[in-house]
Amino acid sequence: MKYFIIVFFLFFTMSCAHKSFGPVSYDNLNNNKAIIFNRSFSKAIYKTDLNIYGHNITGITMIKKTNDSFRFVLISELGIKYFDFEIFEDKGIRPIIHYAIDQMDNKLLIKKIINDIALIFILQKGKSRVKKTGETEIIVFGNTYYDYTSEYGVSEIAKSNLMGKINCLIKINYGENKIPESIIIDHDKVNIKLSLIPNG
Amino acid sequence: MKIKLFLVSIFICGFLLVTLGQRLEFVEVTDTIMLKQKLEATSEATFSISSKFRQEKHLWMLKETIFSTGEFIFKKPNSIKWQYNSPILYTISIHNNTFTIDNNGNITTYDVQSNPLFKEINKIIATAIRGDFINNPDFESRFFVNDEQFLAILIPMNKNVKSMLNLIEIYLSKATLQVDKVIFREAQDDYTLIYFEDKFINRNIPTSDFILGNP
Questions:
Q1: B101 contacts on A by Cβ (under 8 Å)
Q2: Which of A43, A81, A197 sits opposite B88 (nearest CB)?
Q3: CA angle A147, A158, A12 (to 5 degrees)
Q4: Can you say how many angstroms the Cα of residue A24 is from the centroid of all Cα atoms in its chain?
């Protein structure tokens, strides 16, 4: 019985491996697909709803592209700055916390928020695998999955934990010029909703 | 002749610049007791304020400014409403120890005590607008004057406020002692500037104006 369980477990886990994914890609074709803010993006402002463990914060986020990074600044409607992060396209460079309001300066929480937000800015490099379902391609870089169509670009990003369970899910809708119109980040009890303010 | 006219023009421009500069330059008020008494009297006599406002959030590092506009009402003792019309529709009302937010039609009510961060932010802003800064232990104040305005500079003493703001500049009309503009200066040289325009003092404001969701 014991051996049966072990064999069954091995068989089960092997069958769950990403057999349906295509071969590992070594070119950068897929890297260029896993992009949310395209090359022409310079800046935008978003109405923001942030829900952290039941506490709701609303405000306005400015996202601005610099040479090799994105600045993500959230302020309250009344103008008080909540935080100011700089996230680099190169995921090897650690994000910089330029400012976090004292009341939110919980290192673990801030790290979680930054890591989630970083998924929409970092450029993926390295090996990837692809699974095609109709028009949609699921491109996998390590434990990060991108749902991509040639018409809309990346509509969903999912990141799994070591056990393979999706713990962060990001949904993206695009507007004019393929700039994200809405971005919804769901990670356990931290939810972030960004809605583009046109001509903001 | 042309050179003479040119030189005269330069002289006039220079004279105007120097004169205006002197008029607008602030000097420290020596008799603060008298000014404080006047400010307290004005604050006492102000039962309500309604005004339009323009808000500019200057993000120095990003070299960007976020502009907002809306309407503001205040009624004694503690009712305040900020109604943002641009760039987003958002209203926040503080009344009877609860704050209600109308976020584009979604109305949520909270107990003021339940959100210490918001409570602190609101307290600072209310202090600046209502002129409650005289003898306020949370701030050290200094006063300046020019031909048109008084300027009160408030330096936060309270730890919670200090963590958010370096100082607050409150510009008051010399004629009416009402607030014309407020600047909240933060770390990193960022600041928020709020101009109050089309002000009405002591106009009757019904209490129902602070209750959101009313038809």
A1: 58
A2: A197
A3: 100
A4: 22
